[in-house]
Amino acid sequence: MIEQAVVSLTPDAQTRLKDLLAKEGNPQLALRIFVSGGGCSGMQYGMAFDDVRRADDLVVDQDGVQIVVDDFSAPYIRGSEIDYVDSLMGAGFTVHNPNAVHSCSCGSSFDTGGDAGEAKACGCGH
């Protein structure tokens, strides 16, 4: 049985991340993806460049782009796909999470239906 990847990148997200990481000029930089309590649906995503690896981090290397996920966040985003979207509403990275049973229209807040609490009305301005 093949274990499901914690997270993966679409080709568009991978290309964009490679460009952004190259501009930073630090070969140790990776994209850190994490979740935290809050947001209008109970949990929210966060992303940042990080050059620190902690003992409990999971590191995914996808064709030269490293993605780092802490062990708390991993179960909430397991199987997710990071995409880069450039639309009339703006450009940016978005998470397609198969674990989310409810997402807010802002795209950064979600509920897995577990112990994250009840979904709340969208308060993200959309």
Briefly say what this structure is:
Helix content is 14%, strand content 39%. The protein contains 2 helices and 9 strands, in the order βαββββαββββ. It has a 6-stranded mixed beta sheet. A 3-stranded mixed beta sheet has the order 1-6-7.
Chain oligomer state: single chain
Identify the strand order in the major beta sheet.
4-5-2-3-9-8
Mean pLDDT equals: 78
SS summary, helix count:
2
Strand content: 35-45%
Let me know the number of strands: 9
Question: Alpha-carbon distance between the termini?
Answer: 41 Å
The helix/strand order is: EHEEEEHEEEE
Question: So what's the overall shape?
Answer: globular
Biggest sheet character: 6 strands, mixed
Helix content estimate: 10-25%
Radius of gyration: 15 Å
What structural class do helix, strand and pairing data support? mainly beta
| Uncertain stretches | 115-126
Explained architecture:
- With 126 residues, the chain is mainly beta.
- It contains two helices and nine strands; from the N terminus they run E-H-E-E-E-E-H-E-E-E-E.
- Strands 4-5-2-3-9-8 form a six-stranded mixed sheet. Strands 1-6-7 form a three-stranded mixed sheet.
- Strand 4 and strand 5 form a beta hairpin.
- 29% of the residues are buried.
What topology does this entry show?
Layout: E1 7-9, H1 11-24, E2 30-37, E3 43-50, E4 58-62, E5 65-69, H2 74-77, E6 80-87, E7 90-96, E8 102-103, E9 109-111
Parallel strand pairs: 1-6, 2-5
Antiparallel strand pairs: 2-3, 3-9, 4-5, 6-7, 8-9
